[in-house]
Amino acid sequence: MAGSNPNAKPMDLTLKVWRQKNRETAGQLVTYPMKGISPDMSFLEMLDVLNDDLSVRGEEPIAFDHDCREGICGMCSLFINGRAHGPERGTTTCQLHMRHFNDGDTITIEPWRAAAFPVHKDLVVDRSAFDRIQQAGGYISVNTGGVPDANEIPIPKIIADKAFDAATCIGCGACVAACKNASAILFVSAKVSQMSMLPQGKTERKTRVENMVAQMDIEGFGSCTNTGACAAECPVGISLENINMMRREFISAKATSENLA
Amino acid sequence: MGRKIVMSITGLFLCSFLVVHLIGNLQLFNNDGGEAFNIYSRFMGTNPIIRTMEFVLLAGFAFHIYDALVLTRRNKAARPIGYANNHPEQNSTWSSRNMGLLGTVILVFLIIHLWNFFVPARFGGLEGVVIDDVEYENLYLRVVESFQVWWYVAIYVVAMFALAYHLIHGFQSAFQTLGLDHKKYTPFIQMFGYAFSVIVCFGFAIIPLYFFFFFR
Ligand code: HEM
Ligand code: SF4
Ligand code: FES
What we know:
The structure holds two protein chains of two kinds. Helix content of chain A is 34%, strand content 13%. By secondary structure, chain A is α+β, with helices and mostly antiparallel strands. Chain B is built from eight helices and two strands. In chain B, a hairpin with a 2-residue loop joins strand 1 (128-131) and strand 2. In chain B, helix 1 crosses helix 8 (186-214). The interface between A and B is large, with 45 and 36 residues.
């Protein structure tokens, strides 16, 4: 394999994987011994190998979410050995490599656990709650028309950088998975603050934060107790600052909003 | 989020109460056979402003505890199935994850504490003592007697550990809940909160220990 490490010895592992037929049935952890796993494999490639084996044996392959496999789409998930996206910080599961594990390790793989993220099948959870929160206000309404000149609206560099940092949230849900309360506040705050910081987003800032927070509660996410687990496990390093910014948005919106409903 | 804001405001209000309560209690260290403390205790029991604040304090506790219950239950319901393998210690502090447990320890302590000191002081049941020809209720005597009992002292010390850990997370958490964070001030708030929690709880815990070990 190109770029592979000649010293890397293949590893034998024991996987304990959550298997669940569908939403209605109860699941359980199933043990799979694995032999000869290259440390150069990504975690998902390792699961691909297992799934090939299972198919050959006529067993149902393990369902897990993935798409880009380069850390940008937010589709991959997996709670690996007690940590969202595995033991490495700042990494999505697709970017996690087997060299971070040792020969003989037992690896437990579970789906994100949250009432708002019901398990579809095996390791796949339904994250459409995030979509509904976005639909509640995570957008900017603009009139179509002539294309405005670039740089027409001045934005201070610091603000632009902060908004951009918040915009890097890939919507993976690791924050919810890691939080002891299954709170979605880091995700929601990234979406709220990113837009409310920029001039184009200020028009709708009050209704945005009110509606998105309301939807977050409707979806059944827990309430934040400031443990900081979300930011520690977020693969793209969304900062806790966003949460506090959203709280300021929320408090000032509630204090001044015309929307009394 | 509204409930959490109430928790943070009541939580900080309760912190301010702790300061007043501790300063008052320091009079127990006066070597005057409890004169200053008993006069202070009469003042606290009769002054109309203090009596009003007593109800505000009660309401503060009530809201804080009620919202704690509601939120803690909601948070439990948000994850009906837990993880078989979970390592939260690698991403958050123990106290931040156990505020409900720490709060419950404080609540149990509060009930014992109020039953032993507040109820007799407010509703009668204490012996009298004469200071400068005026009859006072001898709350000081009750304090001295109570703190001769080793397990009673132990309850206090354990409860103050719980309070300290509750506040080490809670103090700075309350500011975050209110959205009050800023690169300039947050490090100070965190440091202050830590020092506040340790000093105040140490101050409270030292009282029963003092009476147990040095006052027989
Ligand atoms: C003198 C007594 C107490 C003080 C000074 C105090 C103070 C605080 C503070 C400052 C917070 C942080 C609020 C926030 O993060 O927004 C807090 C949170 C909390 N308190 Fe208390 N509290 C006290 C008693 C209690 C009691 C008796 C209970 C429970 C029965 C309790 C349960 C909680 C819970 C569950 C939280 C939530 C933790 C969080 O969301 O971060 N507290 N408290
Ligand atoms: S805030 Fe981070 S952990 Fe949460 S959804 Fe966005 S990228 Fe994932
Ligand atoms: S598969 Fe796209 S981020 Fe992991």
